[in-house]
Amino acid sequence: MSNFERDKSTLTPKQERALDALLRSPSIQAAAVAAGCGTSTLRRWLGTPVFDTAYQAARARLLETTLNQLQSVGAAAIEALHEILVDKTAPPASRVAASRHVLDLMLRARETLEIENRLQEIEARLGATRPQPTKLRPLPLRKEGLI
Fold first, then answer.
1. Rounded to the nearest 5°, which phi and psi values hold at 139?
2. DSSP tag of 144
3. Are the C-beta atoms of 14 and 41 separated by less than 8 Å?
4. What is the rounded distance in angstroms from the CA atom of residue 85 to the CA atom of residue 82?
5. Is pTM beyond 0.70 here?
6. What gap in Å lies between CA 21 and CA 32, rounded to an integer?
7. Could you tell me if 55 and 46 are in contact, meaning their C-beta atoms sit under 8 angstroms apart?
């Protein structure tokens, strides 16, 4: 049983509905309405360790799922940008926009990798006890004939 399932199993059915509503709603107020509870009740639950732990675990799973979905379409997105970038018949504004997106993605990926590597160095120097992830390698932005 995962931590999320263990934490969620200690919640009442109404709290489970509230947890699901929090993940789908744009605000605490909207989540409270969707779950059929008061906003103050939902805020109080968020202040309890059991509910907050379950909420954080659910958010982490949702984010992981979202990232996995993004990764699965990432190559196609880069390929689409590349096609626009090299299409001489495409409007110049489209080609410029594609170029900006590619450059922006490259810079953000580089910054993220640098921050991760620096963080790993700091943790190693501090003697962090948690296991260190393997050193991240840059994602290939170049596929055969791409970019």
1. -70, 140
2. T
3. no
4. 5
5. no
6. 7
7. yes
* pLDDT tens column, 103-138: 898 899 899 999 999 999 998 998 865 555 555 444
What is the SS3 assignment for 6?
helix
pLDDT above 70 as % of the chain = 80
Higher pLDDT, 119 or 140: 119
- Indicate the DSSP class of residue 10: T
Q: Are 116 and 136 in contact (CB under 8 A)?
A: yes
Q: Do 17 and 35 contact (CB within 8 A), yes or no?
A: yes
Write down the residue that tokens 């963080």 correspond to: 119
Secondary structure (DSSP) of 76-127: HHHHHHHHHHH-TTS-HHHHHHHHHHHHHHHHHHHHHHHHHHHHHHHHHHHT
Instruction: Give the span between the Cα atoms of 132 and 119, in whole angstroms.
Output: 10
